[in-house]
Amino acid sequence: MNKGLLFVLSGPSGVGKGTVCKALLKKMPDLIYSVSATTRQPRIGETDGVNYFFKSREQFMQMIEEDQLLEYAEYVGNYYGTPRDFVERTLEEGRDIILEIEVQGALKVKEKFPDGIFIFLLPPSLDELKDRIRGRGTENDHVIDHRMNVAVEEIALMANYDYAVVNDEIDLACERIESIVIAEHCKIEPTE
Fold first, then answer.
1. Is 15 labelled as part of a ligand binding site?
2. Is 11 annotated as ligand-binding?
3. d(C-alpha 121, C-alpha 10), whole Å
4. Looking at the chain, which terminus has fewer C-beta neighbours within 10 angstroms, N or C?
5. 10 labelled as ligand-binding?
6. Which H or E run contains 182?
7. 54 pairs with which residues across the strands?
8. Which family does it belong to (predicted)?
9. 45 appears as a binding residue in the annotation
10. What pTM did the predictor assign?
11. pLDDT band for position 161 (50/70/90)?
12. Is 14 annotated for ligand binding?
């Protein structure tokens, strides 16, 4: 049995990673979603174990100490991380898995899984990104400005990725990512 493929979707905060990933999973039900752990508070409508594994700082630190995370990063005062066991088990079972994570985390995953497929999700423009973050209604102007500064830094790291997809319309972004998944499964591996 072939191992599954690891797809990593990341990009700036507010670009729509979660929305695109949710729509993609409806179109591609065999693609497994890797739920991240975080110390941030749940937003309205988020469920523990579905959107994130919500952890206290103490619980998260214990996961770090016990090497239970594939990657982790602190982002705007909260920790985010990918539980290692679930990802490795899914790939060994021959199933594809997608990680929806921040840029810092994606670069750490790339160190451990250089054969992963890394997709950078871009906003149509920085102004649109700022409007999306503001539209959430969950952050004040100071936090929004900080997120925008971080976004500019993260976009500069796009050269570390295999693909770039603009999230101008959710359905189009999903079609582009679905095409990447199909293409990666058709790829011929070089012989040594």
1. yes
2. yes
3. 6
4. C
5. no
6. helix 170-186
7. 38
8. Belongs to the guanylate kinase family.
9. no
10. 0.83
11. very high
12. yes
**Cβ neighbours of residue 3 under 8 Å, at least 6 residues apart?**
91, 92, 94
Cα 119 to Cα 99: distance, rounded to the nearest angstrom: 10
By C-alpha distance, which of 15, 25, 40, 2 is closest to 178?
A: 25
In 3-state terms, the chain is what percent helix, strand and coil (to 5)?
45, 20, 35
- Cα 166 from chain centre: 15
CA distances to 15, 45, 144 from 140, rounded to whole Å, are 18, 20, 6
Q: Residue 41 has which token pair? A: 């508070």
CB atoms within 10 A of CB 108: 18
**Phi, psi dihedrals of residue 29, rounded to the nearest 5°:** -65, -15
Q: pLDDT-based confidence at 141, cuts 50/70/90? A: confident
Tokens of 126: 């920085």
